[in-house]
Specification:
By secondary structure, the protein is an alpha+beta fold. It has two domains: 9-81, Ribosomal protein L6 (Outer Surface Protein A, domain 3), CATH 3.90.930.12; 84-164, Outer Surface Protein A, domain 3 (Alpha-Beta Complex), CATH 3.90.930.12. It has helices spanning 60-81, 138-151, and strands spanning 9-10, 16-20, 23-28, 31-36, 41-45, 49-54, 84-91, 96-100, 103-107, 114-117, 123-127, 130-135, 161-164. The strands form four sheets. Strands 11-12-7-13 form a four-stranded antiparallel sheet, with helices on one face. A three-stranded antiparallel sheet has the order 1-6-5, with helices on one face. Strand 2 (16-20) and strand 3 (23-28) form a beta hairpin.
Length: 183
């Protein structure tokens, strides 16, 4: 039995869920999300609760899907009610970011500015050297933050580049002095 899959997901006030065939639609104050269900997953929807089950709970693949979709449904409910947020920090002299519509223009020490198109359903805010990304879709938010970080990963000597705000970098010492007495 899946421990995550058999948990009952309660819908907070202001969040609605509709099941249309194999598509589960969530609507809340932060936006709308759609989730396509696997054919082996059964969803029972009441006014304020969602429960999941599988066709054959004895098979390993089915139990894995049960837990996966329980977690995905819970993430969608939290996303449309509270939303998700990630912060990225830009470090380096001359490194900066600015927004132009749905495009982010980043100066990252290259010979040219890098243009990054923001996907629909994601809101970005730039304050000094902090990029704040918010979205109801946890998957889209995490992938976009990883794509922005991949444009200029932090280097290990000075820490220049883009890193997550809560990320701790391990800095290298650099060139070590010659060993005493070595020739």
């Amino acid at each position: 039995m899946s421990r995550i899959g058999k948990k009952i997901i309660t819908l907070p006030a202001g969040v609605t869920a509709n099941l249309l065939g194999q598509e589960l639609k969530f609507k809340g104050p932060k936006g709308e999300l759609f989730l396509m269900l696997h054919p082996d997953i059964k969803v029972n929807l009441t006014d304020k609760e969602i429960t999941t089950s599988v066709l054959a709970a004895g098979e390993k693949k089915q139990r894995a899907l049960w837990g996966l979709f329980g977690s995905l449904i819970n993430n969608a409910v939290i996303g449309v009610s509270k939303g998700y947020e990630k912060k990225l920090e830009i470090n380096g002299i001359g490194y900066k970011a600015q927004l132009a519509g749905n495009k982010m223009i980043l100066n990252l020490g290259f010979s040219h500015p890098v243009e990054f198109m923001l996907p629909a359903g994601l809101v970005a805010l730039v304050e000094k050297n902090i990029i704040t990304l918010t979205s109801p879709d946890k998957d889209l938010l995490g992938q976009t933050a990883a794509n922005i970080r991949a444009l200029k990963k932090p280097e290990p000597y000075k820490g220049k580049g883009i890193k997550y705000a809560d990320e701790i970098l391990r800095k290298k010492a650099g060139k070590a002095a010659k060993a005493v007495g070595a020739k």
